[in-house]
Amino acid sequence: MSDRKKPVLKRMIRFPPAAEQNQISGNGPGKTGKRMFKPIKKVRVSETAAMQLEELIKDGTFAEGQPLPSERGLMKELQVGRGSIREALRILEIKGFIETRPGIGAFVKSHEGDIFSPLSTWLKDNNEALHHFFEVRSLLEPSTARMAAERISDEDLEALKKNLEEFGNTVAAGDLPRAILVDAEFHRLIGKATGNKVLSSIMDALYRTMIEGWKAPLKIPGQPHKSLAEHSEILDAIRAKDGAKASLLMNEHLSSALQALGDAGLRKH
């Protein structure tokens, strides 16, 4: 049956601008002194798209193993940009609902997801992949941080500052999937800040693959707050153009994450 006869995706809800949203609750507190309305939470377009796709996966509209529509198809159905679609798919991948096959597309992995599955079981299933992931990162990222500190532009520094602020907000809100997304983006942005296109493309590829490696540390209780503090220290060293300190802090950051995974049950390689 064609999409015209049986539309799979609902059209995206269009929210009013922030100014209009504020006017909606313009009456303010009632006679009792209590507010009549709760403030409207700002929702990203990508998160709205991800929630809609997640509902369709959960209710069986898309079967396990079935491909999702192409990026172009999702852009047309949801009437949003490519960037929002890619971020929505990334969120679903982090949650364990889909898997992305480079050059092919996104496929439904599970109707339930695995973001909140038991950590011990999850570490056992991904033991070798996690060790390989951290081996590569330990080779690349300390040198990447050093180079970024020596070469970073004002534009790239501003992007890292905004990322750190968003990471803090997501950690405070307890939004684990988005915290994982923003955490990985911090490391990708450091690669971009080196100005080395080859190194930047390697970090970009690392960012887009091995999702288990990015998910693992932040699934550990307390680790998101620890990672946030370590990101802040790394950024301070980069801002100060102290390459040696940035490299040292990045190495400690990765070693700390691997140690936390070991304490949580990751077997030695």
- Radius of gyration, taken over Cα atoms and rounded to an integer in Å: 21 Å
On the 0 to 100 scale, the average pLDDT is 86
End-to-end Cα distance, whole Å, is 50 Å
- Give the strand order, joined by hyphens, for the main sheet: 1-2
SSE string, helices as H and strands as E: HHHHEEHHHHHHHH
Q: Strand pairing plus helix content: what structural class?
A: mainly alpha
* Biggest sheet overview: 2 strands, antiparallel
Number of helices: 12
Would you mind describing this structure in some detail?
It is a single chain. The protein is mostly helical. It is 64% helix and 3% strand. It contains 12 helices and 2 strands. Helix 7 (154-173) packs antiparallel against helix 11. The relative contact order is 0.10.
Strand and helix layout:
Elements: H1 18-24, H2 45-58, H3 71-78, H4 82-95, E1 98-101, E2 105-108, H5 119-125, H6 127-151, H7 154-173, H8 176-193, H9 197-208, H10 211-218, H11 223-239, H12 243-263
Antiparallel strand pairs: 1-2
Helix pairs in contact: 2-4, 4-8, 6-8, 6-11, 6-12, 7-8, 7-11, 8-9, 8-11, 11-12
What's the short story on this structure?
The chain has helices at residues 18-24, 45-58, 71-78, 82-95, 119-125, 127-151, 154-173, 176-193, 197-208, 211-218, 223-239, 243-263, and strands at 98-101, 105-108.
Question: Which features does this protein show?
Answer:
disordered N terminus; two-stranded antiparallel sheet; globular
